[in-house]
Amino acid sequence: MRGELLPVVYCLTVRKDLSTYSRIFEVVYFKAEVELGVQLDPAKFVCDFEAALITAIEGSFPNTRLQGCFFHICQAVVLQVGQFGLGNHYANNQEIRKKVKMLMAISIFAGESSARGVRNLKCWGVG
């Protein structure tokens, strides 16, 4: 399944703290190893941007590459638009909406491609 994403665990929690996330990973790791005979060593984790979750993943799976979820990146951008007082402009101005969506799209590209995308946005008067 190289190159494919496979959701392995869905978990609802009451708290979003390091001890909760670490405990979840301990239980999942234990169940996989003891009950299924599987050694967990995921190549990649796709998650949102909670600091406690990221720290727990790094502690539990140090060889795993972390990748932010595109939905949560877009959600964070829209939140920032509102916090900068641009919510009404975003809602009512098609050109501003287009530029914000272009900014969101940059996160799809890696490395030099994203830098080139930022330069292009500046050329288009977005930055």
TrEMBL record:
InterPro entries: MULE_transposase_dom. It comes from the Eukaryota. Residues 3-75 form the MULE transposase domain. It holds the Pfam family MULE. This is MULE transposase domain-containing protein. It comes from Trichinella pseudospiralis.
